[in-house]
Amino acid sequence: MKKLICITCPRGCHLEIDEETLDVKGNACPRGKEYGINEITNPKRTITSTVKIVGAEINRLPVKTDKPIAKSLMFDVMKELDKICVSHPITRGTVIISNVLGSDVNIIACRDL
Ligand code: SF4
Question: In terms of C-beta distances under 8 Å and separation of at least 24 residues, what long-range contacts does 54-62 make, across chains too?
């Protein structure tokens, strides 16, 4: 039995998930069941980080994934971000890496610079 707190909404229901049957208890709504099953079978996270930028007043550009990405890819994505250096100017929402690691997730700029 895996115990998790659902982070889908501020209520924070305490979930208990049977890892074999994927039976979820403690959820006050169906979104908690979906969250609990996803956390066991294919956990995903939004990644926020920075990449190098040249020609701007600061030397790091904040970036993030445009949707949650498989948690198992997090370290490899960070390695990809280490290789990136962009040039000023950048507009918020600009795609910095398209389809990173074949995940169908993009890395986008979080601000104008
Ligand atoms: S189970 Fe539903 S009500 Fe409970 S924290 Fe998750 S989304 Fe919110």
Answer: 54/85, 54/86, 54/87, 54/88, 55/87, 55/88, 55/89, 56/88, 56/89, 56/90, 56/113, 57/113, 58/113, 61/86, 61/90, 61/96, 61/109, 61/110, 61/111, 61/113, 62/109, 62/110, 62/111
